[in-house]
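Handout for the seminar on molecular recognition.
Each group receives one record of this type.
Step one: identify the two inputs.
Step two: read the structure output and locate the region that could contact zinc ion.
Step three: write two sentences on what you found, then compare them with the reference statements printed after the record.
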Amino acid sequence: MFIMQALQKVHAAPGLEVREVPPPARPGSGEVLIRVDATGICGTDVHIAEWTPGYEFMAPAMPVTLGHEFAGTIVEVGSDVGAVEKGSLVTIRPSVVCGRCPACKAGDTDACTNRRGIGVMRNGGFAPLVCVPAGNCVPVPAGLDPAIAALTEPMTVSAEAVDTGEVRDGDRVLVLGPGTIGQGIALFAKAAGASEVVVAGHNDGPRLETLNRLGFENTVDTFGRTLADALAPYLEAGKFDVVIEATGVPAVVQPSLEVLRKRGVLVICGIHPKPASVNLTQLVREHQQIRGSYRAPIATWSRVVAYLAQHAEQVREMISHRVPLSEALAGFELARNKSASKVVVLPQA
Ligand SMILES: [Zn+2]
Ligand SMILES: [Zn+2]
């Protein structure tokens, strides 16, 4: 019998394992079988690997193959799959909606309350083959590098953060956190017409260099100094119109309000392990707003795919490492110690 390798979360404890597992069963009704060509390693995967608090809900799904940022080719289709076709390159929306809750029944699947994430609660893309609902496939132009197509999921998070901040022509935008999400935020803020985009990191040399290669020369590292000190040259022109946070570090929230203009908007899209402390009197007097931003609506996906296809040579810079599945654990180590930008696993390599 054919056996494949898969990178799995096996126990509710730190660690991941590359294991030999049976391939998925033939696709059932409404499902398709994907030959996975490229799967990105994301901060969420690293948290699941390290077993940081907040993922206990995964335990009943284990052992489960991780990987929620992926692209591949449809190699088999079940019945009732609609418009999707065998042979097409697709990227996968990882959030599988239930179809039964009041929101789903009303046709508003963006508001589904019973989601099961591919690569979290059901098998994902760190394997050569995976079965997914046909409705979660988003078409990608033929010939686009699958590793670039695999950037779609994190880039939709970036696009949603920029939309939430209502970045418009001429805005001066500060991005906190130079990882993939922050890189995407910088790109979409620029596309939205920002006149200046400054990106701040913390002991983030390689990721800030990636931003420089993406065309953003205004980068600062706050290591050993305060945010306001690091940004001093930029603050001479005034405080920022929009600040978008993608660090997940609660301690950055108050300092970021201090570099935000009156009536400015702070968007939070990092996942924070602890509550943040905010000077609300100052927030009130400055008429500032704090807005949360998370998963993008379905409509954002095709817009992001089009952006990636149009800027393929530029966004290729976001991918710092490509590793075969057999070296996925080494890839996780690169992602964990911040020496990489995006590490992409190639399950067919
Ligand atoms: Zn992710
Ligand atoms: Zn639902």
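Reference statements: The longest strand covers residues 31-41. The two ends are 21 Å apart (CA to CA).
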